[in-house]
Amino acid sequence: MKTLPASPDLSHLKKQAKALLRDALAGESTAVQRFIETLPALQNRQIAALAEDALKLHDAQSVVAREYGFASWSELKRLVEWKRSAAAKRIETWLSWVFEGNSSARGSAIRMLREGPALFADDPWLACVTGDTPRIRQALSADADWVHRPGGPSGMTPLIAVTHSRLILEQPFVAGLLASAELLLRAGADPNATWIDTRFPDSPLPALYGAAGRTHHPAMTRLLLDAGAKTDDGESLYHSVESRDLACTRLLLDAGARVIRTNAIGRVLDFDRLDGLLLLLSHGGDASERPWIHHAILRGRSLNHVRALLDHGADPRAEDDNGVSLFRWALLHGREDVVGLLRERGVDEALSEEDAFVVACTRADEAGARTILARVPDVVARLGSVQLQVMPQLADIGDTEAVRTMLSLGWPTEVKTAWDTTALNLVIFRGDAEMAQLLLSHGADWRTRHGFGDISLGTLSFASRFGEIDDTAPGDYVGCAEALVAAGVPFCEFERYGFSEDVMAFLDECLSATGPQRKGEAVPAL
């Protein structure tokens, strides 16, 4: 295995990958053999046959990374950038991987911990993050009040640092983190203490939220509940339903967590998890507390979700905050199955001309919509905000044919819906490349800012690296990048952001193929 120098240079490593790819495509046997020996998918291939394949730059980057002992190019890149940063920045970056990173980022954090232990040795709060029980015991012996004191780079108390550490999702750290939590609780740590994430200053976050709502770890959750953690903290139950495994949700409910006034039903409807919805409804969830069926339709949930809510008392004549009835909402969103169910329960309404036009579009009935358009030429201009927002809402749940029909009939592409977000940002967040290409081909503007203050490239950056999206999301972030490039986004705009390994490899390949002249000039956001 190759060894990186003490101060590795990423540009030099990129050149190694490009040279390897060039030699392999030229049929140089040693270069091709490196691909075969390093990448499992290419093993047992003949050298001559492999040289004829369309090997890509990301393949070469993977070879270089694995020859240095890394699982992927992104992990190699992380370590190089981490080694070249200042000590304080290293800790900040490392903590972001541990508290918020995916499996790949946690793998990088573990490697940094192993290769640079001196950086972490003097900080007992960092020992809490890793579950270093001897170091924690030493800190308690030196200062018994330390157990209550916020500190460290994130301003957490020791127990909160333990319970928020996503290293508990990696088997070698489970026992240490659980033992550390037990040790701190025995030393008097408050199981209901909170900390403030500076990004969300109005939302104090308790230790239980870390266990049940962030790491979704049943053993840590049970440990805190047994120590007296309060279940009704406004965060834990809501976020617990984000996990495919509902064990933590069950623990909270069994301990007396209240479902009403938590919005947990709304959150579980963000995911295609009927079992989670039924669990909440069976533990006191109020199906009529809010217009939940409106939200279920908005999120593309099944008829079984709707039926479950109705069977548990949801009002079939409910209206949302804008006064839109459930019947009308279902029609506007193309949910004829829900409309049929409501009619079975005695609910029916007449449609306005504008609503009839929207309904024809959501059914992808272009001929019917054009008939209305011929009769009412200004029908699109007459649409209200509720009607106009149907397009980005359907784009968000992948209804391609309905959106295609709307766009072909002149629907404005820059309509904003929840979070002050356009359809393009919503579909890029989900990794829906086909929908992104469709929107861009009809003039959707990649520069439009959304409610979080960034543009579509920022959305792609976040979602490709950190997004924990609905189970049904396509997740094709390379395809989204390809759609943006094809739409003429200058490469220099991408350079402002970090992306997942596969997206970065795609962009590098584009630059290698077209040359630096394609970088273009920066374009101001709208």
TrEMBL record:
Q: Spell out the residue ranges that the record assigns to ANK repeats.
A: 419-451
Q: Gene3D superfamilies from the xrefs?
A: Ankyrin repeat-containing domain
- This one is known as Ankyrin repeat protein
- Which keywords, in A-to-Z order, does the entry hold? ANK repeat, Repeat
Task: Write down the species.
Answer: Methylobacterium brachythecii
UniProt superkingdom = Bacteria
